[in-house]
Amino acid sequence: MTGSPRPALRVTQIGNASGGPGGVSSVVRTTSTWADDDLVVREWPSYWHGSRRRTVAALARTTAKALFSKVGPTDVWHFHLTQEGSFLREGLLLWIGRRRGVCCTALVHGSHFVAFAEANRRLAGRVLRRPAVVFVLTEPASEMVRSLGVPAVRVANAVPIADEPVTAGRSGFVFAGEIGERKGADVLLEAWAAAGVEGHELVLLGDLARRFRLPDPLPDGVVVQGPVGPDEVLARLRTAVALVLPSRAEAMPMIILESMSLGTPVIATDVGQIAEVVDSTGLVVPPADAAALGTAIRRLADSPELARRLGQSAWDRVRTRHSNDVVKGTFVAHWAACVSAARPGDKPLPDPPDST
After folding, report:
1. Distance CA 212, CA 282 (A)
2. pTM score, two decimals?
3. CA–CA separation, 48 vs 102, rounded Å?
4. Is the Cβ–Cβ distance between 145 and 136 less than 8 Å?
5. Residue ranges of region Disordered (predicted)?
6. What residue segments make up the domains of the chain, in order of their start?
């Protein structure tokens, strides 16, 4: 006689809407693809990047679900935390989840999380003590979480891997993200103008940041396409020579992993964990260095064979380190352990130490 089959884990993602722009939304979309016979994945959005109206509506709906939805023994609420308002919105929902006895976990994103947490240690500590498990993507984030007296589990972001990268007929360079100073759009435009690249376009995909002004006229070969859907971003990257992301501040931008997963090499800056992830499969330059950035762009524009070799190496690297199969197991193991425990995390951790 065999026992009853174990019920599937039901993981509810709470945070950025999967239909929105940005790296966190991309993580939500990717995590949703993990569903199988043993794992149900759904989402309750509580934030829409760039839309206050949609954020308010989404937060109201998700708060109602958090308060009144039926909770089962295999439920996990998995929160996507960034910084600032996220610690209020998702922090409230975390509190509701813990009051209801739900197993809660959190993944910390955010290019400015470390600075935010250092400046708001008590708020950050109170929120981060609520989940049973806190996942982090970078070592600086891990050190910050531990300094608040909270254990941290270092993980990688997952990304779907293309079956085979496009090797012929690639053209153009792509920037994808908010077009503004934090992502280094000003440096990129200066570098592109100085590089004098012929036969290629530089396509900028994304919303224009507030108070950021594009030069008029634009440098030759620059096309500002503006915001597009995730599928179009990937389609552009699939046949591009390279992704160019000269950010001044990042944690681990998903767009870099997505580009590498398509066999498209990356030109980026040495901020956050970018150099660690890209390693020797792309070109990494100092932030805010237009001359070095222009040289890197020109180098790949002038050498299709180098771009092809770097792209192949990038594809190989993410396939072994960031594929769904590699990353999913770590999360599922922690989620399963969480629901197996009785009211996990009920013993509160001490208040985080004050900054010295």
Report:
1. 28
2. 0.85
3. 24
4. yes
5. 1-24
6. 9-158+324-340, 173-321
Band of pLDDT at residue 5, cut at 50, 70 and 90: low
Edge to edge, what strands does the sheet with 266-269 contain? 222-226, 202-205, 173-176, 242-245, 266-269, 283-285
Summarize the confidence of residues 78-102 as an average pLDDT.
96
Helix/strand/coil (H, E, C) string of the chain? CCCCCCCCEEEEEEEECCCCCCHHHHHHHHHHCCCECCEEEEEEEEECCCCHHHHHHHHHHHHHHHHHCCCCCCEEEEEEECCCCHHHHHHHHHHHHHHCCCEEEEEECCCCHHHHHHHCHHHHHHHHCCCCEEEECCHHHHHHHHHCCCCCEECCCCCCCCCCCCCCCCCCEEEECCECCCCCHHHHHHHHHHHCCCCCCEEEECCECCCCCCCCCCCCCEEEEECCCHHHHHHHHHCCCEEEECCCCCCCCHHHHHHHHCCCCEEEECCCCHHHHHHHHCEEECCCCHHHHHHHHHHHHHCHHHHHHHHHHHHHHHHHHCCHHHHHHHHHHHHHHHHHCCCCCCCCCCCCCCCC
- The two three-digit tokens of residue 294, written as one number: 């222009």
Q: What is the CATH number of domain 173-321?
A: 3.40.50.2000
Give the number of other Cβ atoms within 10 Å of residue 16's Cβ: 29
* CATH class assigned to 9-158+324-340: alpha beta
Distance of CA 57 to CAs 12, 13, 49, 51, 339, Å? 18, 17, 13, 10, 30
> What are the tens digits of pLDDT across the range 341-353?
844 444 444 555 5
